[in-house]
Amino acid sequence: MTTKELKEALVSGCPVKSKGITYKCVSAIITRYKGNQFIITAELTDIHDNSVSIAEPHRIERVI
Question: pLDDT tens across 26-38, in order?
């Protein structure tokens, strides 16, 4: 996903997939500053609302 697609997924609350696992939604976009550059990651909530995982945007896709 691009940053724009990630923001759209966050707002819509749609299910997403990363590394073959389906998640309930993108629950946060995390921005860190490291080594003179911004690093963007996403927090993904599992389908049972029990845990979250952190993933790089290029590994996330919207579930249709």
Answer: 999 999 999 999 9
